[in-house]
Amino acid sequence: MLQRISFFQDCTDSELRVLIEQGYRASFTTGEVICRQGDPETSFYIILVGEVGVRAETGQLLAQLPEGAFCGEITLLTGTNRTATLTALRDTVLFVINQKALQQLLTQHRALAEQISQTLATRVDELKQLGLFSDDPADSTNPPLDLGTQVRQRIHQIFGI
Q1: Among 18, 57, 65, 74, which has the minimal tally of Cβ within 10 Å of its Cβ?
Q2: What is the Cα–Cα distance from 11 to 76, expressed in whole angstroms?
Q3: Under DSSP, is residue 21 helix (H, G, I), strand (E, B) or coil?
Q4: pLDDT per residue over 14-32, tens digit each?
């Protein structure tokens, strides 16, 4: 299943084993909240079974994620709080990857960090357009960087790679 996720397609079996050994399965019943917008939690989720709803604070359904989709990467990779609330739309089983496991993989597979940063930049840009993600005004003294560069620098800062 992990190799079907675009982030992990180029990883070797041994690299993926690192994630599998440190990750775990979590089950949620229909309607159960997986995480709430604003939470500081740092986990990445892959939907093994079921469907997950992504909701804004207002309750507006932003997306419905099917089996094989992933979510939670923005919080995990940028160090920000959750940008939306995730809810099981039907009975759901997730594979949960924490920051430490992903850090080990990124240390071994640096090209993956570049691929993730590009995908993440696209998602963050979409969230900005919806008003669900804002830039850090504390760093306004530096000239603005393109979003891909900002995300890549943040990944390197968080994971020390």
Answers
A1: 57
A2: 19
A3: helix
A4: 777 877 887 899 999 999 9
